């Protein structure tokens, strides 16, 4: 079981940064909750715990103590920036410590995944003497996700779509960085009964290649799942981008994917 500790920055009587009708503490909690749901729903053998699950005051010491006592495998502290800028930056502790090389590697993978997903200005992979990074006993990083006092970025922050997209970006990075295993295809949603149409966007012998295709699709806004397919003595991993009882809906999805360059086909699946 992989234990991931998420820290929604600030909370309670500490609002964090403020701007354009927003408070950092509300945004970080919304992102963390969404991120928890994504990780626990899409990956197996994952346990996610939050430093706070509602708007309440939690000291920095309480946060790192909770993570350390739980023996978390990874800690991620989520924040929103301010100060007249734009874009994304991430931090690890600036000191010398055992495991720094691994901490740097994990952070770099997460950083890149977020930049790729959000298309933000890259403000760099940085180091700082932040408590959450200094006092945690496991690999840890802190992310600063946009500027609350940037009017253009703040308008996006007000939408549920932005919250979900930021959470997906973090989930993609975490999953890649610490090698989370995706949930089995049986967890994927299915129609109530009978035959239905699946849109297949890639069939691969190597599971790694199927996961890479799933990652690319996710970045483009398409949810998908993997389904093993056996042909004679060979197992293929199909990337399924939708299961439909109505064939015309499957055809619409097929055209949508083909229009952006994917080679896909429809197959009939019977339960």
From TrEMBL:
GO terms for cellular component: outer membrane-bounded periplasmic space. One of its GO terms (biological process) is peptidoglycan catabolic process. InterPro entries: MurNAc-LAA_cat, N-acetylmuramoyl_amidase_3, SPOR-like_dom, SPOR-like_sf. GO terms for molecular function: N-acetylmuramoyl-L-alanine amidase activity; peptidoglycan binding. Residues 191-269 form the SPOR domain. Transmembrane segments: none annotated. Keywords: Hydrolase. Gene3D superfamilies: Sporulation related repeat, Zn-dependent exopeptidases. The keyword Kinase does not apply. It comes from the Bacteria. This is N-acetylmuramoyl-L-alanine amidase. It comes from Paraliobacillus ryukyuensis.
């Amino acid at each position: 079981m992989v234990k991931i500790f998420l820290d929604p920055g600030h909370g309670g009587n500490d609002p964090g940064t403020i701007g354009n009708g927003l408070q950092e503490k509300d945004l970080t909690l919304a992102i963390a909750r969404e991120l928890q749901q994504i990780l626990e729903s899409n990956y197996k053998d994952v346990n996610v715990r939050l430093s706070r699950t509602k708007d309440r005051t939690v000291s920095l010491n309480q946060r790192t103590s909770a993570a350390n006592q739980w023996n978390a495998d990874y800690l991620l502290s989520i924040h929103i920036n301010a100060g007249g800028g734009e874009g994304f930056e991430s931090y690890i502790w600036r000191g010398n410590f055992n495991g720094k090389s691994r901490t740097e590697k994990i952070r770099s993978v997460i950083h890149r995944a977020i930049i790729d997903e959000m298309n933000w200005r890259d403000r760099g992979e940085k180091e700082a003497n932040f408590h959450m990074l200094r006092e945690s006993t496991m690999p840890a990083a802190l992310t600063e996700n946009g500027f609350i006092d940037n009017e253009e970025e703040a308008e996006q922050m007000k939408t549920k779509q932005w919250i979900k997209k930021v959470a997906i970006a973090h989930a993609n990075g975490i999953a890649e960085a610490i090698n989370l295993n995706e949930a089995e295809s049986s967890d994927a949603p299915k129609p109530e009964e009978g035959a239905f149409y699946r849109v297949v966007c890639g069939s691969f012998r190597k599971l790694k290649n199927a996961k890479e295709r799933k990652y690319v699709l996710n970045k483009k806004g398409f949810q998908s799942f993997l389904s093993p397919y056996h042909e004679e003595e060979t197992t293929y991993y199909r990337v399924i981008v939708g299961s439909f009882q109505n064939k015309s809906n499957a055809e619409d999805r097929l055209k949508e994917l083909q229009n952006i360059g994917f080679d896909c086909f429809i197959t009939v699946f019977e339960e």
